[in-house]
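Fold these two proteins, one after the other.
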Amino acid sequence: MFATHLRRRVTALTVLALVVLGASQLVATSSGAGIPVRYTVQPGDTLWSIASAQYGGDPRDAIATIEGANRLASDTVYAGDVLLLPSA
């Protein structure tokens, strides 16, 4: 009787440990928000050129991301501005 109870407990704890370990691996490999990169705008840069160079895919999506992260009121940037570029 005691051996059966002990075996069930060990099995339950093993399953729980595997679930926790699996969940921690999912969290660790998440491609969620990473550390943003600071980018200093160079003469001649535009949001389009920055988005094209720093992100893949449609630059319009990246421009929206950059504008949101930097709370830009317009799409004009000036040489010397420092922008936060969130990870893709």
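Now the second one:
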Amino acid sequence: MKALLFRQFGGPEVLQYEDVPDPKIGPHEVLVKVRACALNHLDLWVRNGLPLLQTPLPFWTGSDIAGDVVEVGADVQGVEAGDRVAVNPNLTCGRCDYCLMGEDPLCDAFGIIGEHCRGGLAEYVSVDARNVLRLPDAIPYEGAAAFILANMTAWRMLVTQAQLRAGEDLLILGVGGGVSSAAVGIGKLAGARVWVTSSSDDKLERAKALGADEGINYAREDWARAVWEQTGKRGVDVVLENVGAATWTGSLRVLAKGGRLVTCGATSGPKGETDIRLVFWRQLRIIGSTMANRKEFGDVMRELFRGTLKPLVDRVFPLRDGAEAQRLLAEGRQFGKLVLIP
């Protein structure tokens, strides 16, 4: 089969479109013919090299996978060859205390397809049969792939962790990326008033077309001050934070009393400055979140199937042009997801 692989760490120039052996499946696995695989910043980080990750080379990434089951393991039940499926990218042991409690992202052996094992930027991928979910015929592969990781992450952040409620104010930083764009739809579904920030007026307008109520261009004004003043110096109830050090202080300052900051990333750096007095005096909550458990994955995918949440596909590329797609992702020029087609 063909795969978009790298044999050394570095920029998109290290990517090669080459023949590799077809994957084998175990008794509890299925072989999926990949029809679409969306990109995430995780693809760039793994390709560049993560210091604590022992990545076996050659390697190919790809966490957001949709395709067709072409082979099932001897012990697999409930999945058949020919099924159209979306793949849950979580890797879990199924045995630790956290797995038994249904808290997959806290698994002692937690991993992600495309980061801790070879992923979907190839013609085929082998996955645990527990990780596939049947796709209705009406859902295109490209839309399913574009939806999975960003929406499962945003769903857990807002619905489970922050417990966003109708009538609350939600601030989403850096709209245009996968999680932040997905959060707009989830925020509106929850009945919140949604604020977004971006350095691009075009992205702000596109976010408003998705339902965002207020947009602030942080290239032209102090976004934290603008939010504070436009909320009557009350602040917002929830901040969805994945930028990190560059926005951390402002994110805490714009929270209303009793507000919740929920974070899933630190793109601009891992060490943010926290005024502890602000946290206890205003009784703020800082909540971490990663990926989603199986129930949350099923819940958010049902919203896709119902049409209450929509996938955001920016552009589709053939897999052989994946290096160009990764360059665009690194430059942040997309709104929504870039999808690769083997």
